[in-house]
Amino acid sequence: MDSDYDTMDVKGGRPVKMWTHGVPVEPEAKEQLANTAKMPFIYKHIAVMPDVHLGKGSTIGSVIPTLGAVIPAAVGVDIGCGMMAAKTTLAASDLPDNLGPLRSAIEKAIPHGLSPKTRGFKGRDQGSWQDPPSAVDAAWMQLKDEFDVICAKTPKLRHTNNYKHLGTLGTGNHFIEVCLDEEGAVWLMLHSGSRGVGNAIGTHFIELAQQDMRTHLANLPDRDLAYLKEGTQHYDDYVEAVGWAQKFARMNREVMMQNLVKAVRTVIKKPFETHVEAVNCHHNYVQKERHFGQDVLVTRKGAVSARAGELGIIPGSMGARSYIVRGKGNEESFTSCSHGAGRTMSRSEAKRRFTREDQARATQGVECRKDEGVVDEIPMAYKDIDAVMHAQRDLVEVVHTLKQVVCVKG
């Protein structure tokens, strides 16, 4: 398959192949990519998606194949973060003219956000369940035994918000949306990961990797490139824990989708089916795969698997289009594609540059929050999704184009 990428040669490191034609890439991101490419266990090359931008240690929007080692900070702390989308049998004409009650029903059905960080606050975290519903109980029973084994090795994980975070959204760029496709069919879509327990697992093993490499940290291009070597106890424990967190994340999205469907049914009385077409995919994760005849660990830090025929989701920002895509199985990208549009500026910079009025104008026609608390998610803080999609046209084909009409954020 012909590939449309640029190659950045790295002195003392592996090449970096970049699907970034027509989209901006910060010099700092290129520096991070070069640093990662110098790690001695990188296999063949690093693949860079068009949504690439500065991250912690490694860039977001990169695919990092490794032999005999894993970089916990490259996987990150939102382990298993990803997307789920399900097509329904509803049409645009079935939606109410006033979408406010639909948004309110969704916000009531699925915990989201965080409680104010005030001194001495002792109330329930509004982003967790007070009394988890039966769907959470059923899902947790599929996770509990393996979690107990992991906690026997790392007891502090038991004190995280795990069970009560299952089926909840979180904050930041996580969202729940009601969308319309190009034919006017209604889709339900959401974005979340492994929540508090995944954060704790990621943080714990990033610290362990740095402790293990105390004598080598000074020689690393970045301390967040500290790694765990295959054959060590910490490596084995990490692979076990990160695998569990990825299961949690996938199940978290499934439980949310169940409750999202129930919420929609409280407002739209017309009977409908869902999961007509459904996708549930990670975009922050690591797993063993075979590429170029070799079994390797593939870390996708803000990237989606795009094997031939495999469906994935590439969301735009609030107010922009999103895409259901089918992978083309391009080996040069380690069968991957972007996980979204990618930020062009930090959250703090977006808050400095834009106002609540800017946010309201940019999300006109979408039933969503338009207050100061979500200005950092304004569409102008992201790359042009059309340019991002064009840059990766040899990685995926578009199956459906979605436009949101309701968006819930924490």
TrEMBL record:
UniProt: Mn(2+) 2 binding residues: H191, H283
One term of GO molecular function: manganese ion binding
Stretches with biased composition (Basic and acidic residues): 346-358
Domain of life of the source: Bacteria
Residues bound to Mn(2+) 1: D78, H174
EC id: 6.5.1.8
Catalytic activity: a 3'-end 3'-phospho-ribonucleotide-RNA + a 5'-end dephospho-ribonucleoside-RNA + GTP = a ribonucleotidyl-ribonucleotide-RNA + GMP + diphosphate; a 3'-end 2',3'-cyclophospho-ribonucleotide-RNA + a 5'-end dephospho-ribonucleoside-RNA + GTP + H2O = a ribonucleotidyl-ribonucleotide-RNA + GMP + diphosphate + H(+)
Keyword presence, rRNA-binding: no
Cofactor binding: number and manner: Binds 2 manganese ions per subunit.
Active site per UniProt: H339 (gmp-histidine intermediate)
Pfam families associated with the record: RtcB
Region (Disordered): 336-358
Cofactors required: Mn(2+)
Keyword hit for Methyltransferase: no
Binding site residues for GMP: 173-177, 283-284, 315-318, 322, 339-342, 409
GO biological process: DNA repair; RNA processing; RNA repair
Keywords in alphabetical order: GTP-binding, Ligase, Manganese, Metal-binding, Nucleotide-binding, RNA repair
Quaternary context: Monomer.
Family the entry assigns: Belongs to the RtcB family.
Protein name as annotated: 3'-phosphate/5'-hydroxy nucleic acid ligase
